[in-house]
Amino acid sequence: QAKNDPGDPICRYRSALSEDLEVRSQVRKDLRAGIIAGELRLLYQPKVDLRSGRVVGMEALVRWNHPRHGLIPPARFIPVAETSGLIIPLGEWVLEECCRQLRLWRDDGMSDLKGSVNMSPVQVFSQDVAALVAEALHTTGLPAEALEIEITEGVFVHDEQRARRRLEGLRALGVGLAIDDFGTGYSALAYLKRLPATSLKIDQSFIREVTDQPEQARLCRAIIGVGHDFGLTVVAEGIETAEHLAFLRAEGCDFGQGYYFAKPLEAQDFAKVLRDQPWLTGDAAQ
Ligand code: C2E
Ligand code: MG
Ligand code: MG
Ligand code: MG
């Protein structure tokens, strides 16, 4: 009897846990079928050169268009994909789809457009990611310098040697390598000198309060300085207001993304932004 007492904390915990496991196993089953059925989609968030206001690139962000639940954000299924091995086919699809779309836009006149793809640490550990990227570039005819791979600091936690070798393999192809969500991981600075990164993305949590908390502004300024000292380009994510933008411009941050410019867009809407270049500053607009 006591086993099924909903007031009993252990019982509550057990049922919460089993529910969670049930949900996860359902998600896993649906996702496996969904990948095969072509339910994954990419959205593209503009990346803007903060000095000129020009759209110079985009970040590809995956969505799952579930037949019953609609468009599902990655936070809801990437973790399941990572623990079930589905991140491998998912990651391959994202990579190739982004390269394919980028090639089309470059052929269509935006010849120096760049694209960034997020890669899970799980992929870096379980796959020869350099071979994977080389193949995607080859199949789509995209030059390596058009592509950047984004990886979070978490990739270095388990086996830094191995992660470094894999990432050096990527760099050797000529693709860019960005450290994503910079500043939120376990040790922000020590590995900067040991990694073949080409850019650093300041996490949006730093940007959010940059204009009303002096300490956040100091942190942000310091990150931009450290990034530049290490020869990296610095990208701010999560720019939401004109004040955020003005601050980052004044501090010499190179590139930015955020809702102030645009949310992640459908391909045809991103193409329109590329044509219209709505954020060109006075100088660059002339
Ligand atoms: P991320 O790579 O750091 O991507 C930035 C996230 O911030 C995106 O959420 C984006 O929509 C959101 N964002 C952009 N501008 C703003 C803003 O101004 N304000 C706020 N509040 N949010 C903004 P999204 O698309 O839900 O992706 C979440 C995370 O899921 C990504 O974080 C990335 O870690 C992961 N992810 C997305 N696509 C992929 C993928 O194809 N493969 C892998 N492995 N992970 C992915
Ligand atoms: Mg990213
Ligand atoms: Mg990020
Ligand atoms: Mg993030």
Automatic annotation (TrEMBL):
Q: Does the keyword DNA damage apply?
A: no
Q: Which UniProt keywords apply?
A: Membrane, Transmembrane, Transmembrane helix
The GO annotation for biological process reads: signal transduction
Q: Which residues form the EAL domain?
A: 24-278
Protein origin, superkingdom:
Bacteria
Query: What does the entry list under GO cellular component?
Result: membrane
User: What name is this protein filed under?
Assistant: Diguanylate cyclase/phosphodiesterase
Q: Which organism is it from?
A: Rhodospirillum rubrum (strain ATCC 11170 / ATH 1.1.1 / DSM 467 / LMG 4362 / NCIMB 8255 / S1)
Q: Which residues of the full protein are shown?
A: 541 to 826 of 826
